[in-house]
Amino acid sequence: MSRVGCWGPWFLQSVAVLLLSFMLQPNPSLAYVLKSCTILYSENRSTLAGIKVDCIQRKLLVVPDGIPRGVTWLSMFLNQITAIHKNDFRYLSNLTVLDLHMNSIAHIEDGSFIDLVELRELNIEWNQLTNLSKDLFEGLWKLTVLNLGSNRIRIISPSAFGSMPSLQTVQLNGNLLTGMTDIQNILQLPHIDYINIANNPFSSFETKHLPLNMTSSLRGLQLSSTGLTIFSITTPVFPHLEKIHFDGFSTNPVMKVDIPEPRFFRNVTHLYFTFHCISFKGMSKLLESLVSLVHLQLSYTEKWINRGLLKTACSIPSLRSLDLHYNSVVHIDQKLTYCSQITELDLSQNHISNLSSHSIQSMKRLRYLDLTGNYLSSVPGVLNSLSSLEILYLSDNYIAEVVCLDFLNLTRLKELYVLGNIISKLDGCVFQNQKDLKVLDLSHNFLLELDNRFTINLKKLEFLDLSDNRIKHFGKGDFKSLESLSCLKLNIIEDVHSKIFEGLYNLSLPLQMDNILSGLQLLRNLTVYLNIPEGYKGVDQNYSQNLMNLPSLRNLEIICRGIHCSMPVHVPIHFLKIMKNLEHLSAENFHLVEADIDTFISTPQLKSLAIRESGLSDLNPELFQPISKLEVLDLSRNNLKSLDFLAQASMSNLRCLILFENKLTVINHNIFHFLPALTYLDLSVNPLTCDCSNSGFLLWGLSSDQTQIANVHRYVCTYPLSERGTMFLDIDLHSCWMDASFLCYISTTSLVLLTLLTAFGYHFLHWRLVYAYYRLMALLYDMRERKRNKPYRYDAFISYNVHDEAWVHREMLPALEDERGWRLCLHHRDFQPGTSIMENITEAIYGSRKTICVISRHYLESEWCSREIQMASYRLLDEKKDVLILLFLEELPEKQLSPYYRMRKLVRRSTYLSWPQAGRHPGLFWHNVHRALESGDSHDDNTHFLSGPAL
User: Fold this and answer.
1) pTM for this structure?
2) Which of the chain's termini has less CB crowding within 10 Å, N or C?
3) Domain 764-934 -> CATH class
């Protein structure tokens, strides 16, 4: 390769990088490398629109720059931002969700949200706001949800919510509001649906403080009894109110309830109470006024329940749902007798150890029952009286055995959750009548075997969880009849009958390496937990064909567990041969030797490939060529040291590349030109080198408006040692283009150019440059002498060639010095010894009134003579004085008069003296010389600079 070929592109690239490094500033339209945030990857995103930006818990002090304009979801939760400024969210016109909660925001400039014209949800909970000004929310005309909870808001401008006509939900809990007037304007919003003002220092909530003719569209109201002493609805302000939620604490004062007209609450359907925030009598009266109540929640209200409040509640004909969780009620028997119309009952997290036969048997309509987190030691027999039950939770109790009679009459049961008990035995007939059962969760128990427990009637079962039990053996027909099963969760098992899954169509299950899957022609999802035995050397052909005879498989996950997972595993070519429809393949902790290049030749539909924690150090690019549709490639926790394989891997559709925790030190940014669709790149936890070898990659990341380098602001330098611990983004790009090689290149290039220019100038412009030099010297001398104002030392300086010296002594000196007494300056006689020639010439020309140039062929060939005449001609042109006399000793053709002496031009314009033309009249010749010497320095416009007429 020629030197030009090596240096040329590098130089152009260097210049481009240098220019871009100055130009690259955080820009809302680009900036895909965010120093403090992450753009969340989405497999369904093909454009920049609709992206989500995560700035959660990044120790931010201000809103970061460079957020892409197309963002629709932005979270800055749990940071240290203290203020929001007017331009912080400029250009983010597509944003629909903005989360700022749990910061330290004490001030928001008016108009800060004016560009957020599409914003639907705004969360500023847990900050330090104290007041809401009139223009604070300007521009948020599409906002529907506003959370201002847990601030210090005392003052709300009457027009603060006027710019949000679409607002439906407002959270103002945990602030310092004191009265109804503070929320009046919120209640008057045209679409307001729910407001939460709990934990504010309201002393009363009374509608009489609102305008008499006011009505609100409010449907949900949440408040607390903290300091609230009066709850009074005396005017028809809330004709649409449906849900009321009272929060409280055990130490709250008793609140007085005043609802003189039950019609004011005729539409209330849901009532939630926590703790005893009003008196028993007041609560009873309140329930009597709720003629349309459907759902009632009473938590931490044991006193009311023990005093018989449920009798009053269940007397409401419309009541259908009763939630009594967290009440610590031990004996609930007689208290539910009157609740026969209930369809949903929640008794979770109480102290119930038994349900008597008459406790809930009257609830013939009950469809949902939750007994989670109690002290039941067996399945209550009374459940068999609930023939309409569809969903039953018995989780987290102390049930040890389930027998045939436990669910005998629950023929409509669809979901059964018995997880988290101590069940070690299931009778064979337990689920014989559950023909409609779809979900069965028996996880986290002590089951040892199934013994054909699922062979009868569970034809509609779709989800079965048997994980975290002690089952190690399965029989041939354990799952045979589960023809609708879509998800089966098991522990790692030791022994499986070859026909155990025969007849199943669609399931996802973990298996051990020694299991055999056959007959599952419709299986779509499979998770395999491998337990590699000691001395394992690879998957033989017959075994792998039996294991992977799954033509309909779409998703395959292989996870190795055990102490021998670090052993290299050979994957044969035919491993995936049957899986022509496979779309997602994941292998984890599965240490591979080099895979054959035809491994994926039978899986052209593969879209997602993950090979994590598998010891890969190098990959053949031909391995990926059959899977041209690949969109996601995850090679995390391997030993990759180079990405060169990507350049030839033909992955034009790849959008997500994850290389977390490898051995990459230098990233060649040119690799990513071969991945035109790449939008997400994760290189976290790699030992990156922070010097100029990675400057090209960093610059590419900073300038890319398509590919996001995830979490790049957290990348830490590993090399060189002097930079260890510093941040990767702090690489000084400018210094990278001023290294020794670059300076050497610039110096060499400059030297070459200077040599070329010098040669060109010497060849074509030599005399012009010399002339310019002498003109400069003369100018400097003339300026110096003018300041001194010295008189002339000589009448004339004689400029001649040494070859003409005899003529000067024989003819000129006698005629001018001896006869007329002119003071002449001759270089061989009058030049100052020890002074430079140029300085002597300049002194002689400017120290004489005239300069006589004795011109001959030898004169034209002399370098010093040329300098003398050039200096004299410069004085002639500069001073505009008649100071130059040209005296030709011989006839010279005009073409021999070099234009560089400017003589040719002067001869054409003016007269001159010619010795050959003097002929036999030398007296006349010297007479003309005397006339030229005698003439003054000044001249008019018609006088030529050259002295004497033409002969």
Assistant:
1) 0.68
2) N
3) alpha beta
